[in-house]
Amino acid sequence: MAPIHGYWAKDFKRLNPRLADKDDELSLVKNQETVFDKLVAAVHNLGIKIILDIVCNHSSPDAGGKKGQLFDDGVLIADFHNDVNEL
């Protein structure tokens, strides 16, 4: 079982699949019609603003034998044992 507090992000350019329907686009950068874009538009129409709380030093723990993985829109770019870009 994994926590769902949202602080263990592995990919800051994709939605957590738990927050979307199976057919929703998870990428936040591929187009302007993602479920996140629809959420922002809907709340803005109600006069509400969204604040994103990002805690980078609480990201990607050792879970399920995979430690410190970091993705860029779905593409693995580093992990705890392989960080050639010194991220």
Polypeptide structure, described:
The protein is low in regular secondary structure and 87 residues long. It has one domain. Helix content is 13%, strand content 8%. The chain has one helix at 35-45; strands at residues 70-72, 75-78. Strand 1 and strand 2 (75-78) form a beta hairpin. The model has no long low-confidence stretch (mean pLDDT 79).
Secondary structure layout:
Layout: H1 35-45, E1 70-72, E2 75-78
Antiparallel strand pairs: 1-2
Can you summarize this structure?
With 87 residues, the protein is mostly loops.
Keywords:
87 residues, little secondary structure, 1 helix, 8% strand
The figure for the number of domains is 1
Please give the largest β-sheet. Answer: 2 strands, antiparallel
Mean pLDDT across every amino acid position: 79
- Uncertain spans, ≥5 residues at pLDDT below 50? none
Percent of residues in beta strands? 5-15%
Record field, number of beta strands: 2
Distance linking N and C termini: 28 Å
Structural class: little secondary structure
Order of helices and strands: HEE
- C-alpha-based Rg, rounded: 15 Å
State the share of residues found in helices, binned by percent: 10-25%
Total count of helical runs of at least 4 residues = 1
Q: How would you write the strand order of the largest sheet?
A: 1-2
The gross shape turns out to be elongated
